[in-house]
Design goal:
The structure holds two protein chains of two kinds. Chain A is built from no helices and eleven strands. Chain A is mainly β. In chain A, strands 2, 4, 5, 6, 9, 10 and 11 form a seven-stranded mixed beta sheet that branches. A four-stranded antiparallel beta sheet of chain A has the order 1-3-8-7, with no helix packed on it. The termini of chain A are far apart. By secondary structure, chain B is mostly beta strands. The chains are: A mainly beta, B mainly beta.
């Protein structure tokens, strides 16, 4: 167990709807990263939040947005869902510090199905 | 942009034997980190081992060790005394020491352990 939790475990939505996924970081961590993992693929970086600010973004459209809260938990929001958004969404937390190991520890993921 | 390639979609090994998973990467940076993550059917991405590029010594963690060849941009994982619990998808990942410190993953290698 990494101490990183995600909710919900599974989610089914229809095309055009909006969804919010949640992540609780490991205690003491200040950074959260989100990844999308399509079936049979490696995870793809969506974005990262550090101290409540977006700290980098992958090649994902603006309808993918996020938040990080003062307790370092995080949300991933996806608007106008498309069929291709069906995937496993992984959250990873880390402690980013100068000279630190900055290793990312993953949660169990949320499986999103868009019909 | 950095890329990670895992050329073995599937590998199998007899229980108690040794297996090596291959990974190559492409980068113009000199300072970075490399990781092997394991993803069992439970979906949670688990850190197996990490390697700092500035360290010449290969990392080891119990039965897991790496062969890091910086000039060749190669980072293979050796699993000794394979156990049934080692069966999983294995992902090689790259992380820059600069910027958002996102993980760039390979496509993964599915490892099967034969009893």
């Amino acid at each position: 167990e990494t101490g990183v939790t995600q909710s919900p475990t599974h989610l089914i939505k229809t095309r055009g709807q909006q969804v919010t996924l949640r992540c609780s970081s490991q205690s003491g961590h200040n950074t959260v990263s989100w990844y999308q993992q399509a079936l049979g693929q490696g995870p793809q970086f969506i974005f990262q939040y550090y101290r409540e600010e977006e700290n980098g973004r992958g090649n994902f459209p603006p309808r993918f947005s996020g938040l990080q809260f003062p307790n370092y938990s995080s949300e991933l929001n996806v608007n106008a869902l498309e069929l291709d958004d069906s995937a496993l969404y992984l959250c990873a937390s880390s402690l980013v510090s100068r000279g630190g190991r900055n290793t990312q520890y993953f949660g169990p993921g949320t499986r999103l199905t868009v019909l | 942009a950095q890329t990670v390639t895992q050329s073995q979609p599937e590998m199998s090994v007899q229980e108690a034997e040794t297996v090596t998973l291959s990974c190559t990467y492409d980068t113009s940076e000199s300072d970075y980190y490399l990781f092997w993550y394991k993803q069992p059917p439970s979906r949670q991405m688990i850190l197996v081992i990490r390697q700092e590029a500035y360290k010449q010594q290969n990392a080891t963690e119990n039965r897991f060790s790496v062969n890091f060849q910086k000039a060749a941009k190669s980072f293979s994982l050796k699993i000794s005394d394979s156990q049934l619990g080692d069966a999983a998808m294995y992902f090689c990942a790259y992380r820059s020491s600069q910027g958002a410190q996102k993980l760039v993953f390979g496509q993964g290698t599915r490892l099967t352990i034969n009893p």
